[in-house]
Amino acid sequence: MLWLALAPFAAALIAPWLVGRIGGRAGWVLALVPAILFVAFASLLPAVANGVTFAYGVEWAPSLGVRYSHFIDGLSLTFALLVTGIGTFIVVYAGGYLSGHGHHGRFLSFLFLFMGSMLGLVVADDLISLFIFYELTSITSFLLIGFDHERSAARRAALQALIVTGSGGLALFAGLVLMRLASGEASVSALLATPDVLREAPAYTAIFVLVCLGAFTKSAQVPFHSWLPNAMEAPTPVSAYLHSATMVKAGVFVLMRFAPVLGDTALWGTVLPLFGGATFLTGVILGIRQTDLKQILAYTTVASLGLLVMLTGIGTEYALAGAVFYLLAHALFKGGLFMVSGAIDHETGTRDITVLGGLITKMPITFLAALLGCLSMAGLPPLVGFVAKEVLYDGLWEVGGVSVATIVAVIGNALMFAIAGAVMLPFLRRPGALPKKPHEAPPALWLGPIVLGGVALGGALLLDDFTHLLVAPMTGAVAGAAVELHPHLIPTGLYPPVILTLVTIGVGLVLFILLSVLRRAVAGLLTAIGWGPDKGFDQVIAGIVRGSVAVTKVVQPGSMQSYVTATFLAIALALLLPLGADGLPDLRYVGSTPEAFYFVILAVAVGGLWIVIRAKTRLIAIVSLGVQGTMVALIFMLYGAPDLSFTQFMVETLSVVILALVMTRLDLKASDHRAGPVATRDGVVAIACGLGFTLLLLNVVQQPFDPRLSEFFLDHAYDIAHGRNVVNVILVDFRALDTLGESAVVMAAGLAILVLIRMVPAVTRRIAAPDPTGTKGEGRA
């Protein structure tokens, strides 16, 4: 089972090749991959329904305590079934929808990459691997949303989705790190075994905020909701899969996964219902205004995600059961309806419900699929959506009767009922002028919606089995304890949830009748408000660009002198600030009394430095600069390090030769003509660097000598590296990669110098060439 979760990544590799070989039929063949995975996960249903969990994995990064591991319980298994089950029909659908497209194979490859990322997320046990797959869903969705990259709208939507969800993912990562630090546990299963450790941790508030940021951005909660409707720029298979059944529910999954360890607090019970309720109402209000089928479904997806977050925050047994029922119902009806909208667009050339009409006779199978989806979306029997509404009303009523949450749920569901009726208008309204003559879609486009609608119907008719195998195990995993659920398809009396359902249907019918009035009212309200999160995103991005340009002008002015000054200033600060914080070394420290010739060496070095400072030409300064390195080489030799001394001699000689060679080939000013203030500034920086290195070395030599490293090299140089020259062994064996890096740097610098030397004469000749216009050029190389 561990390696089966990686199967979608393998399918992503072969998808382009297979499409190239068999064309549109590749979708049917590749759909076998998620279908087999679905069967494999479905085989675990009886065991998980009886309370069994599965945990297994392999070491990934043992030194960091990171494992590639899976944890299968009711929550992860249900999500895995959604990812693979709906994914099976999406792959078939994509094969038919994009048949003949020039990049069909690439699209299927991206789709499988996303499938593998989402599957890895929902079954992940290790916290770090959970984050990795969480961010992979953002990256792969970016590729899918921006699939039609030649359109600017698609590129903007993809970038917006990546920035919003990716930023939230980084916040989630910080929260997961704090979880690990606060609990000492590295896996989800271990955290669930100690549910109170995080609630009692001092960092609980920080963890909660960071996890909510990660979840709210991914699941499009207000004010991060605008990326999801914009993501409808993606091809319809993407909308049907990512933005209804899988990716957008990743945030809800995270909240449900950590509900047993972060929930049941005042903060949890306040923030989640507040943001969830606001998102629910925002989604349905904005959705009622839309006339494009995909936009209607997108905004109602935002609303549904808000309802799920609100119920998860309320956290009672039946509120959580209502969330689970509704999550399953939403995945079924919204995935199917998105595919229906794609089929309508594919066969009619438009998705505008004010233009579409008469499709009930032209596309009867698609009509049946739409009917099943809309009945479930409206919360009408005998579909799972009806049961979900009954259960969630039961959960809300047991918390506080006619509470704010209950009123929000009734208003939102009534608007959802009206929107479901609007989605059916293309089939029931009289025919109009369409861009294309409609006819029934091919089987690849209606198979998925029909099956998903049939599952929604079958789940309601076989409610006991549906509840026992799927809903109860998932609800228990979210609640942190086993639950007993007894939902009914046929109400047994006129109790509060039934009354709330009747009120919802009645209000929904009135709203549907007033649909045109509501659409105009919402449009006028939005026009009056003007500004919104979507426009705010553009303003934030524009501000970041302007800020980066301003910063770049400061830190990248195009002056080599500025770069060198900044580099040495950073070195001086890095040396002096820690020394100032920890205390300066004893400046009276002398060590052993030096011999007289050391003073001669020091005098020669200082003399050479004075010549460098006072030199009239750059060439004299460069030659004199080599005096310093030569004196250092003499010290190495006198202290018994001839090999190091020889290396220093070679470096100094080559440096002087190369610099002198470059100086003779470059057309530079012969001497340094820096202004007084600039020269003073550079002198202060240089003295600061020299003082910093001096104090650092004094600090080092005053510390007690630790011989462990030296003894290790002396003891093991011959045994491990088979060499008796310890210095050579250190350079070539123990520090081999470091030496290789140094050699590479020298080689790169040599190549750069060679190119520079060969370029400059040609540039000089070009500048000195006669001006064909007769004007005298004034530039110099």
TrEMBL record:
Q: Give the organism the record lists.
A: Acuticoccus mangrovi
Please give the Gene Ontology molecular function terms for this protein: antiporter activity
Q: How does it sit in the membrane?
A: Multi-pass membrane protein
**What InterPro entries does the record tag this protein with?**
CPA3_Na-H_Antiporter_A, MrpA_C/MbhD, MrpA_C/MbhE, ND/Mrp_TM, Proton_antipo_N
Any single GO BP term? monoatomic ion transport
Q: What is the lineage of its organism?
A: Bacteria, Pseudomonadati, Pseudomonadota, Alphaproteobacteria, Hyphomicrobiales
User: What broad class describes the main subcellular location of this protein?
Assistant: membrane
Stretches assigned to the NADH:quinone oxidoreductase/Mrp antiporter transmembrane domain: 124-408
Q: Which domain of life is it from?
A: Bacteria
- Places the protein is found: Cell membrane; Membrane
Q: What is this protein called?
A: Monovalent cation/H+ antiporter subunit A
